[in-house]
Amino acid sequence: MDSSEQRRKRKRIFRPSSPIATLVYFFSVRSFVLCFSFLIFLFLLSYQIPFSSSVFRPVLVVSRLSLLSSSSDLLSTSQSFQDFGSSSLLHLQIEGRVLFPDHVLLLVNKNDLFSKNTDFECVYGRNRTGDDVGIVKEKSFSVDVYGESEFGVLVRCPLPPVNYSAVVNLRKFRGNGLWKESNQTVNSWENVAYAATLDGNTVVVFVKGLNLRPDRESDSSQFSCYFGLGNFEKEGRFALRTRAITAAQEVVRCALPLSIRKTPEKARGIRITIGMLPHIHAKAHEHVLLPSVAKITELKSEGRGNVENGKYDLCVCTMVWNQGSALREWITYHSWLGVERWFIYDNNSDDNIKDVIEELETENYNVTRHVWPWIKTQEAGFSHCALRAKKECNWVSFMDVDEYFYFPYSTQGHQSLRSTGYAGQDSLRSLVANVSSSSPRIAEIRTTCHSFGPSGLNSAPSQGITVGYTCRLKSPERHKSIIRPDALDTTLLNVVHHFHLRKGFRYMNLPQSTAVINHYKYQVWDVFRAKFFRRVATYVVDWQNNQNEGSRDRAPGLGTEAIEPPNWPLQFCEVWDTGLRDFVLSNFADLSTGLLPWEKSSF
């Protein structure tokens, strides 16, 4: 009885005594269930994306920088363009656009249907301000495969006509179909992360818009790397962040997130950008993110194969624009001196350079062309090439195609730098090998440059520049360097002429009696004036701008217009120097015809 009575009392305690009490009871249970379900959801979310590391902190940030063209200023693609038939739609995806001063660059995701011979039409729609709704079509400037990039294809389009949008779309040239693209973003070249590559457990990001001082390392604490994961293209967000390790000029290096560090190949194809503090007292969550078209890539060897020890003794890296006519002489000559591997960074050339490089490859010159569409980024391009060459080369020379190493007869005191008293075949490779064996702490060899003038010529010399130009300035100008890529500072800082080295390494200056570089800087006017329209170095003012007119980077006495000065053929001529001309004619001319190798090819 006692137990039965106790059970009845407990039932009365838990039974609601009124309608109001019933409601209170119902909502209390429901609230408990909802709270419990929400906690389970948070647990599952954190389990799917592990953000526990203090080094690898989660963020969810949308870029605050305004884009050059936003969707509010433009008609949507479906409104701006007519559908010309679904049967001819391109199976490509435009993943980024960058507006340059003279063209629009489209970064396109390549698929199996793409051919390197594919031609595209660039299709422009009117801005919202236009009265008419219509399109304009222009043939693309160029279509190129973009190395290791996840984008795969670069298409360069003309600037849009007046009142037309820079949101360029594509269709096959003379095709019947237009590929519609929902991505409306156009990035200004002045502010954008444009390339990124893996380097060990770090990622190196190349960025425009940081405005850092040249030839100086900057405070890396002001910057971070942001990694886009998941459905980035639709959400426009970056999920993860790591702090910058170094920052200098246009290059920022960050650690990889812990979840990727053990298997860096997982980072390939991830969108990345740089966040920067708006002022020195700002906090991390106040980072302003730069727009980005950069996806992480892994640089791979593209040479003909490795030598016995796994690396070539001597390689060369250069950046060119429309230098196809000069390439054969330069590569033939320096290959004879011992260069084994060539990296040609092509900066939007529209001449025959691709054909020239393909011909050289068939003749067993170990040359690869690397598309580098980013204008006025020579320092960043050289940093990128140093990373590429590190896996393949013991030494890398950074030089231009109008610069030639020359070995005058050495004095007796400099015989240790090469085995013979004259410059025989493979002399340059022997020189760097001797430096490596005798002075392992030397990681950069600097060679003085002599600048040659037009030498009385009015037209380009038929036998090549080494034979045609023989008069130069008396005093040397600057130097160029051969470096060990494994000994470079982690910032990759360079000023084109030389790099910063890691602590413990040093550079050496070659005596001019051992080697010099003949720099054929001031050629005949028709060749020289091209420099007015394209300077590749980041911190060199274009000659058409009236800034730093007294700079050594300019030709003395020239203004800001490409007008031939009086008496140009006799300018920059103080010393007649026929040493390299005589050397080339003695070692390269065909004994029966007298023709040089590059003359034969031209003929």
Automatic annotation (TrEMBL):
Classification via PANTHER family: GLYCOSYLTRANSFERASE FAMILY 92 PROTEIN, GLYCOSYLTRANSFERASE FAMILY 92 PROTEIN RCOM_0530710
InterPro entries assigned: Glyco_transf_92 (IPR008166), Nucleotide-diphossugar_trans (IPR029044)
Keywords of the record: Glycosyltransferase, Membrane, Transferase, Transmembrane, Transmembrane helix
Signal sequence, start to end: none
Residue spans crossing the bilayer: 20-47
Similarity comment: family membership: Belongs to the glycosyltransferase 92 family.
GO CC field: membrane
Membrane topology, as annotated: Single-pass membrane protein
Single GO term (MF): glycosyltransferase activity
Major place of residence: membrane
Organism: Solanum stoloniferum
Subcellular location as annotated: Membrane
Listed EC numbers: 2.4.1.-
UniProt-recorded name of the protein: Glycosyltransferase family 92 protein
Domain of life: Eukaryota
